[in-house]
Specification:
Layout (H helix, E strand, L loop, with lengths): L10 H10 L4 E11 L8 E17 L3 E8 L11 H11 L6 E7 L10 H16 L6 H16 L7 H6 L2 E7 L2 E6 L5 E8 L5 H6 L7 H20 L2 H7 L6 H4 L6 H10 L4 E4 L6 E6 L1 H16 L5 E7 L6 E2 L3
Parallel strand pairs: 3-4
Antiparallel strand pairs: 1-2, 1-11, 2-4, 2-5, 5-6, 7-9, 7-10, 8-9
The structure holds L-homoserine (HSE).
Length: about 325
């Protein structure tokens, strides 16, 4: 992989350039994301603005990548076994530098929640390193590094969580090899409400449920919906966003793993949400809403259904985050 054009410099001078930068440590917010968006399995996703992990990335004299602190969930410290470490190593291997990085992970997104937990970790490390190095890599290159981490978990390379976490807003991954990310507009009154039932569904397992072949008539319905959704985002056509949120290929298989899925979906739509579907590989269920007031109504509907279920859950209401991963101050 080549360095980003503006920073296209030789390896020895690259190391000197990196060291000129006085910033040695960075704290960042790496956002949760909703992948698939019903009809865009593996190619579409959007970014949330108030749910995500925090990470600290530090430049140190010792060469290599070390994970020095993990809080929130029990995850491996070995860089080669941790998505944040794997993506960091992918980027580190593309550099020729005589120093290293430490990573601290403050995990807020539960692994296996369906809102891009592994993507947030994978994105945070490469974003932070890139900032400390004076941004030698562009967003597409960062996405490629981060995909190496996420694919370790999902056993498949896709950019529908990583892309939105890095670029912000809605993105469409036109292809992954070569990686081609398209940034889509986010209508200004669009809000997501997401319920996260506290059960774990492993992405690799929920992918294993899916058929290798789909009937042509379902494929036609799916690409008509995906095209319509993209048109609706470009034209801020909220009604069309709702009618395009229809997944006839993946949802029928995966929804069986999610308690009360159909009940939640039908009830939120009946009460004014534009549409709803499985967030990523589940178990979270997302809905899109016009306006904050409607998003809060949807939250109440979800709460009423899950409140009696005996399953712990949390619910997030979020505007679409058009910025993606970002530096934060204490
Ligand atoms: N597109 C992926 C899936 C997202 O649904 O399996 C989860 O990683």
């Amino acid at each position: 992989m080549e360095l980003h054009k503006e920073s296209s410099i030789s390896c020895s001078s690259a190391a000197e350039k990196y060291l000129i930068d006085s910033m040695n440590e960075i704290k960042l917010f790496s956002p949760a994301t909703v992948a698939n968006v019903s009809c865009g399995f593996d190619v579409m996703g959007f970014c949330l603005d108030n749910v995500g992990d925090e990470m600290v990335i530090r430049k140190v004299d010792q060469k290599g990548i070390r994970i020095t602190h993990i809080e929130g969930f029990d995850l491996p410290y070995e860089a080669e076994l941790n998505v944040a470490g794997i993506s960091a190593l992918a980027m580190y291997d593309a550099l020729d530098i005589d120093f290293g990085f430490e990573i601290e992970i403050y995990k807020k997104i539960k692994p296996g929640s369906g809102i891009g937990s592994s993507a947030a970790s994978a994105v945070g490390s490469v974003f932070g390193m890139n900032e400390l190095l004076n941004r030698p890599f562009n967003k597409t290159q960062l996405t490629e590094f981060a995909m190496k981490g996420e694919s370790f978990i999902s056993k498949c390379e896709h950019a529908d969580n990583i892309g939105p976490a890095i670029f912000g807003g809605f993105v469409l991954a036109k292809s992954v090899a070569p990686l081609h990310i398209l940034e889509l507009p986010s209508p200004k009154d669009l809000y997501a409400t997401i319920i996260h039932p506290q059960i774990e569904i492993k992405t690799s397992e929920s992918r294993g449920l899916l058929p290798n072949k789909v009937p042509l008539k379902n494929a036609i319905t799916q690409w008509a919906n995906l095209g319509s959704l993209i048109h609706a985002l470009h034209t801020s056509n909220y009604q069309l966003i709702g009618s395009a949120l229809n997944d006839v290929i993946v949802e029928p298989y995966r929804s069986k793993l999610i308690p009360h899925f159909n009940e939640v979906k039908n009830a939120v739509i009946k009460n004014g949400a534009l549409g709803a579907g499985i967030s990523g590989s589940g178990p979270s269920i997302f809905s899109l809403n016009k306006g904050l007031k409607q998003a809060e109504t949807t939250k109440k509907v979800m709460h009423d259904i899950y409140g009696n279920s005996g399953i712990n859950f949390d619910i997030h209401v979020s505007k679409i985050n058009t910025k993606g991963v970002k530096i934060i101050n204490d």
